[in-house]
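thought: fold this chain, then report.
action: predict
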Amino acid sequence: MLFRVTAVLLAALLAAPALAADADRVAFRSLYQELVETNTTLSAGSCTDAAAKMAARLKAAGFADADLHPFAAEGHPKEGGLVAILPGSDPKARPMLLLAHIDVVEAKREDWARDPFKLVEEGGYFYARGSSDDKASAAVFVDTLVRFKGTGFRPRRTVKLALTCGEETASAFNGAGYLAAHERALIDAAFALNEGAGGRLDAAGKPIALNIEAGEKFPQDYRLEVTNPGGHSSRPAKDNAIYRLAHGLVNIEAYQFPVELTDASRSFYATMGPMVGGAMGGAMTAIAADPKDAAAAATIETDPGYNGMLHTTCVATMLDAGHATNALPQRARANINCRIFPGTSAEQVRAKLEALVADPAVKVTMMGARSEVTKAPPPLTPEIMGPIKTVAAQIWPGTPIIPILTAGATDGAFLSPVGIPTYGVTGMFGDPDGNGVHGLNERIRVTSLYNGRDFLYGIIRLYAMQP
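observation:
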């Protein structure tokens, strides 16, 4: 009888942590669901409401009003955000910042198989707009601070959280840009963690590699424009606006900007080369050893994804010309979208496009810039990589960690230019097809979300105790 009682008690004791973990996960799922189901599209949603709900979660966990800083710029009442602060114990230790945007891409119910603003768990996935981009990270960051408060954890360095709006729409008010320009002291930090990189799964759902974003290319649009007196199409002239524009576009198409490597992209090619194998893998290994290897570069350039990391790229995206079918064109325009390598200025690229066009009749104009150009990518120091390696080895043993330079654009573009090095790291592994992010039926694997939650909690806790 004594043995049976002892066995029962032992089983209960062993089950207690599991039951606590289950309850903890239920609480996180509730927070995540609330954030995902709060519509934050620019057209019909409100980031301000979503930020207020997250502030309420933090206040219920014990955060003082003085440590919660909601913000909204004049004229943008629905595009507000939140900065939350968990004070550290060491005033000499510089803070760290957690950055996540809470706005989402537009989604029409009639186009989706499920309501895009209802969290649906089905077939091992969570479906909803923002289930991945970027409310997964935002929810985990809020949840991490709630857990820190609940366990009485006192970080050595102050941990800050910024939930912002406007990342998904170029014309919208951008909360990260606002904070960088108007509340720099509030978000001051030694470094920031952000979206931008997760992990890649193979077709069977097995982790291939954990990516860390260290730097991103800068997006910039340029307008090429030719104007002409025009005339009747029955009197064709050599000076044709469309032809002059076309010749310039062909020159741009034929040009490849010089190969450039950052520490992150060099490490990416060097690590991925043996994994990819074949001619492409050999080219990746070769380019990591010698950026001037033209043959290797030519091979890599055949893959759009790998090519995007190799150098500045410029591509025609829109055309507009002529005013009547029976008239010579009086105006011809094209939009060139460039993704500029760190360290190169937007004006340098404009001047290069102008030289490639080689026609004074074709005006090359820089369109509005989204943010400043980052002069150099943030360094992958042992202080940054150490916690990532430690926690990743516990969750995904044997999975390689590969730094990347992304061709996209995140809100990190607003922080790095003001002196806050920003790293993209989520630990959330995605499927090869991109999981419908920005498209229909966006989803994230349930296991990817929960593993990412454990990963981010672990690395944030380690970072928080650094001197």
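thought: worth noting. The chain has three domains: 21-216+377-464, 218-257+312-340+343-370, 260-309.
final: tokens above.
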